[in-house]
Amino acid sequence: MDIDAAREVARRAVERRDLPLLGQNPNVTYRMGIMGGTFDPIHNGHLVAAEQAFDDLNLDVVVFMPAGSPAFKQNKRVTMGEDRYAMTLLATSDNPHFLASRFEVDREGITYTAETLELLSLAYPPNVELYFITGADAIAEVVTWRDAEKIARLAHLVGATRPGYDLAHARNAIMASGLDFDVTYLEVPALAISSSYLRERVTAGQSLRYLTPDAVTGYIHKHHLYGVRPRRYGSTELHD
Predict the structure, then answer these.
(1) Position 233 pLDDT exceeds 70
(2) Are residues 134 and 170 in contact, defined by beta-carbon separation less than 8 angstroms?
(3) What pLDDT was estimated at residue 171?
(4) Confidence at residue 13, expressed as pLDDT on a 0 to 100 scale
(5) Residue 60: strand, helix, or coil
(6) What is the C-alpha separation between 12 and 119, in angstroms, rounded?
(7) Mean pLDDT (whole number) for 158-170
(8) For residues 103 and 236, what is the distance between their CA atoms, to the nearest angstrom?
(9) Fewest CB atoms less than 10 Å from the CB: which of 13, 55, 64, 179?
(10) Three-state DSSP class for 239?
(11) 3-class DSSP assignment, residue 57
(12) What confidence category does residue 48 fall into, taking pLDDT thresholds of 50, 70 and 90?
């Protein structure tokens, strides 16, 4: 995709409010958080991490961007993008500074973080800074991602960690890369939760209450995701 075409894609996304309107005042610096992930499904750990990043880094908005066809999961089963976007929309709809975006879900082909950040940088003027929020585990892997040098140039990285997490591996990987990454680490207690854990609970017929918003639980049930058991799922009965 050439630069003019990329600008047009990004411009249309802003016009239809799939991306926030930022950068209007050239004398103000705007900070946009980008919460990347598969969100299969989205859970409270994602939401708490985004809220903490919003507060600690003085962000103007956090955009939740479900991956379209993630490069690192080509050989794994991933729920349809439409379902993952719908769950993300439900989970974020009551927060005025969260926005669920179809920006990656609607793109054809494999989606790469560097390409997404490049498109976003073309959508906004220079006074809009990008903060890419991900787990601290992923920070150590970013250096191996496609066009990692572009990621370092286009965005600040925010690594959400759980209490007691050893950051040495992530910090060593960043240092060894020789790339000029700007990384901030945030300790988030709720990150002990994972999407894979939620999927396992659904398959086992166990409740997701207090792990993800109730609206997401309802969507999973109604759309029969993750091997849901209609007769037991969400039941208040205790099971051995």
Answers:
(1) no
(2) no
(3) 93
(4) 83
(5) coil
(6) 12
(7) 87
(8) 38
(9) 55
(10) coil
(11) coil
(12) very high
